[in-house]
Design goal:
- The complex is a heterodimer of chains A (314) and B (278).
- Chain A is an all-alpha fold.
- Chain A folds into two domains: 14-58; 85-310, MetI-like (MetI-like fold, Orthogonal Bundle).
- Helix content of chain A is 75%, strand content 1%.
- In chain A, strand 1 (61-62) and strand 2 form a beta hairpin.
- The longest helix of chain A is centred in the N-terminal third of the chain and has 45 residues, at 14-58.
- Chain B is built from 14 helices and no strands.
- The mean pLDDT of chain B is 87.
- The chains are: A mainly alpha (314), B mainly alpha (278).
- Chains A and B meet through helix 2, helix 4, helix 5, helix 6 and helix 7 of A and helix 1, helix 4, helix 5, helix 6 and helix 8 of B.
């Protein structure tokens, strides 16, 4: 009370007081800014960060459905995982799936963006419609391609028989290579639109005069693509490669709905492997361990992506 | 960009465009016509490229077999709630990151963004017992909560990159007039930010609607199931698959996102590539 009175009694010095007031306002602003973040931060910590930390920790425990609680075994799970040929195999399968799918969808996305970048009637409408596969639920895409690859009545078999490519219908999804091809094609089909959108955005900032100048020097289409368009798109390419790798490493839905990781283990990628370990065999410790190795696989591409995203942040 | 004046170039361009167009669009066309063909026409070794007779039979059976209408309803409830909650949180968090400077801002932002490299399947291992202990396993609320994983980090970043472009002068001017920060945000910034907010809403909605992994695991009861696991469990565990029904049900399952997307696609494309392409 006395202190308050003293403050009031002090004659105000205009400049200093305004400065102080400004400082107080800044602090209040800061507090308000932090307050805005609270709901998202709480949700983030509770649903993402904490589960993540716990999962990392679980990789050091033996924990199965028949046990009362986790039992600490240090790096025991990692030794088991590395000694398990089946799990090692799922890393190779993941590499094949992620590599093929990312490469195919980026290449085809780029080609389609170049086509959609040419002026023609109905161009903008067609661009919009091209995004349709992307918004399809993965389960729907899996059903659709499962029907197209169907052994008895599928479109692929019918077309291949008509064209004389095969003599008998093939049960694509029951052969290891056929199943992998189906999974890669389905995910590629789902991913092309997004990559097309990225490349189109990149192409729009392309300098037309630069191309005209190259043309005047006698450059052909191929030269223009190779010397001007692709170099211009390099930053976009980097982002799409990283996004593609992260997304495909994460991918579960189409694979599960189309092949469930089979036949046998032909399409058992890491996401399917972790799901099976955790929710079919209820071996939580092992599932967490494979998951941790999975994180280690995602980390390098994610690092580049994060660096790119944080570049503009002051 | 490409010079198509020569016949040679024209031919190659047309060939590539046609092949790619077929790959992108033909499956969608196939989905639609397969759901309208009669079973008799559907199960033939050499399929017809255009239905000789159109029938709604598959839609009728799809709506009565399993619980498609119920699953669609559940998906709608879950996806709308999840989109509303995630968008609201992301709006405030994105604005906070964009327009305020405080201790720990950058590391927190980096941490939230890095969540994209946490595998969804790995998080599920611990989200499952967590929801069980909160009594939220096998509830729509629990599923909504878990969808924070998919949408929140990306949504926050998308809105952050939009709010960063809102001129500071706009905010400073209102501050000089004595408006509170909350008021400034609600009456001045939000009204001009609707397009990106709609984008983020649709983005979160789409993730929730399309998800299979979480909904398959966190929901056990038939009456709470959402549409993606509903489709899978109805049509895949059968010895004689009902492909016509599966196609019709798929079409109905894809329709809501398709409609939302067609209405809002202009904002959508800008919003999703924002930040990544500069």
């Amino acid at each position: 009370m006395a202190a308050d009175a003293a403050t009031v009694a002090t004659p105000p010095v205009p400049r200093r007081s305004s400065h102080a007031r400004r400082g107080g306002l800044k602090a209040a602003e800061r507090r308000f800014g932090m307050l805005l973040l609270v709901p998202a931060l709480v949700a983030f910590c509770g649903v993402i960060l904490l589960p993540f930390a716990k999962a990392l920790g679980l990789s050091l425990f033996k924990y199965t459905i028949d046990m009362d609680g986790p039992e600490f075994i240090g790096l025991g799970n990692f030794a088991r995982v590395l000694g398990d040929a089946a799990v090692r195999g799922s890393f190779v399968t993941t590499l094949v799936f992620v590599g093929l799918t990312t490469a195919c969808s980026i290449f085809l996305g780029l080609v389609w963006a170049l086509i959609m970048n040419q002026p023609f009637r109905g161009q903008s409408a067609l661009r919009g419609v091209s995004l349709l596969p992307w918004i399809m639920p993965a389960t729907v895409a899996a059903f659709l391609w499962g029907w197209i690859f169907n052994a008895r009545f599928g479109l692929i078999n019918a077309a291949s028989l008509q064209l004389g490519l095969i003599d008998f219908p093939v049960a694509w999804l029951s052969t290891p290579y056929g199943a992998m091809a189906a999974v890669v094609i389905t995910k590629t089909w789902l991913s092309i639109p997004l990559f097309m959108a990225f490349f189109l955005a990149g192409l729009q900032s392309m300098d037309q005069e630069q191309i005209d100048a190259a043309r005047a020097d006698g450059a052909q289409n191929w030269d223009v693509l190779k010397d001007h368009v692709i170099p211009h798109l390099r930053p976009v390419l980097l982002v799409t490669v990283v996004l593609g790798v992260i997304g495909n490493l994460q991918h579960f839905d189409t694979i599960w709905a189309l092949t469930a990781g089979g036949p046998v283990r032909a399409t058992t990628v890491l996401s399917v492997q972790v799901y099976r370990l955790a929710f079919e065999q209820w071996d939580i410790g092992m599932a967490a361990t494979v998951g941790v190795l999975w994180v280690a696989t995602i980390m390098p591409p994610a690092y580049f992506y994060l660096r790119h995203l944080m570049k503009g942040v002051e | 960009m490409l010079d198509l004046s020569s016949r040679h170039a024209k031919l190659i361009f047309a060939g590539v465009a046609l092949t790619m167009g077929l790959f992108i669009f033909f499956p969608v066309y196939w989905l639609v016509i397969s759901s309208f063909k009669s079973s008799q026409e559907l199960y033939r070794i050499t399929p017809t490229l255009f239905p000789t007779t159109w029938t709604l039979d598959h839609f009728r059976t799809a709506l009565t077999r399993g619980h498609l209408p119920l699953h669609l309803f559940n998906s709608l409830v879950v996806s709308l709630s999840s989109a509303a909650i995630n968008t609201t949180m992301a709006v405030y968090a994105g604005y906070s990151f964009a327009k305020y400077r405080y201790f720990g801002r950058k590391p927190v932002m980096l941490l939230m963004l890095s969540a994209q490299m946490f595998p969804f399947g790995l998080l599920l291992i611990t989200i499952y017992p967590q929801l069980t202990s909160w009594g939220l396993l096998d509830t729509r609320a629990g599923l909504v909560l878990s969808y924070v994983v998919f949408a929140l980090p990306v949504a926050t970043y998308m809105l952050y990159s939009y709010f960063s472009q809102v001129p500071n002068e706009l905010i400073e001017a209102a501050r000089a007039d004595g408006a509170s920060d909350l008021r400034i945000f609600h009456t001045i910034v939000l009204p001009v930010s609707l397009p990106p907010i709609i984008t983020v809403f649709l983005y979160s909605f789409m993730w929730s609607w399309n998800d299979l992994l979480y909904s398959l695991t966190l929901i056990v009861s038939e009456d709470k199931r959402t549409v993606a696991p509903g489709l899978l469990l109805t049509y895949l565990n059968e010895s004689n698959a009902d492909w016509g029904g599966a196609m019709a049900a798929s079409l109905m399952a894809a329709l809501p996102v398709m409609v939302g997307f067609i209405l809002l696609q202009r904002y959508f494309i800008q919003g999703v590539t924002a930040g990544a392409v500069k």
